[in-house]
Amino acid sequence: SVTAGNNGAVCVGGSIVLTASGGSSYAWAGPSGFTSSAQNPTRSNATTAMAGTYTVTVTVAGGCTATATTTVTVNSAPASASNSGAACAGGSVTLSATGGGTYLWTGPNGFTSSAQNPSITALSAAKAGTYTVTVTATNGCTATATTTVTLSTVSATAGSNSPVSVGGTVNLTATGGTTYAW
Length: 182
Prior knowledge:
Blueprint: E1 3-6, E2 10-11, E3 16-21, E4 25-30, E5 34-36, E6 42-43, E7 52-59, E8 65-72, E9 74-75, E10 80-83, E11 87-88, E12 93-98, E13 102-107, E14 111-113, E15 119-120, E16 129-136, E17 142-149, E18 151-152, E19 157-160, E20 172-175
Parallel strand pairs: 2-9, 11-18
Antiparallel strand pairs: 1-3, 3-6, 4-5, 4-7, 7-8, 10-12, 12-15, 13-14, 13-16, 16-17, 19-20
């Protein structure tokens, strides 16, 4: 009897292992133009385009042929990362992630968090940079995404018309902002 099988659902990037038995030679055909003459071929670096029905044509004793099929599932863990935008020193930035069941963030200055949307408080130059989230979907597959946290810098200048004579008017000037408090 001719049989065809596979190693079960795999994650994107994993290996699809096809199996067949019952004959002396094998001819596999499947999604994305896949062909193989191996009895038990492997497709490495699986993509979702590799999912679907695989058919094996088996040559049995006496030169007769028989076919069998197996369906391959390739799961993914879509991941995306973003943040609330540049903030000034001492401010805070919220990281955001989507795509999974659990989240693990890592970043500059030893930052780690298992929250989906953690905040970075007391922002400083040491805390600015690239943050990476590893998303583990409910199907067990993982994926990563990154976002860059930027520290806003303000270049301010102040000046005056000093020195002035006693009784004269002192004019103060400032640039670099939108509001000023003297």
